[in-house]
Write a structure and sequence with these properties.
three-stranded antiparallel sheet; mainly beta; 1 helix; binds zinc ion; single chain
């Protein structure tokens, strides 16, 4: 989980207040090839556990909120995985 500075907290983008973000595999690309094989591209992302909305970082000092995506680098690098190899001729 990204480190927050003093006076900052995670909040739900839908307005639920302070939350603890949960990590999940966000699939940003999914391609089904004619031969039936699937190419799934996922990356680790954070969401609010209450309503699966985005996570904001709220600063009590500056009274600003920043999208978590813009606040910190992704927790892990992007994974490009070919789930099943397709036969190519
Ligand atoms: Zn919420």
């Amino acid at each position: 989980m990204p480190q927050l500075k003093d006076g900052e907290e995670f909040i739900c983008d839908s307005g639920c207040g302070t939350i603890q973000p949960e990590q999940y595999d966000f699939e940003y690309s999914r391609e089904v090839l004619p031969d039936g094989s699937v190419i799934s591209k996922t990356e680790k992302a954070w969401r609010a556990p209450c309503c699966k909305a985005g996570v904001l970082v709220y600063s009590n000092r500056e009274e600003t909120s920043t999208r978590l995506d813009d606040y910190a680098a992704p927790a892990t690098s992007i994974r490009d995985e070919r789930l099943s190899a397709g036969a190519r001729s």
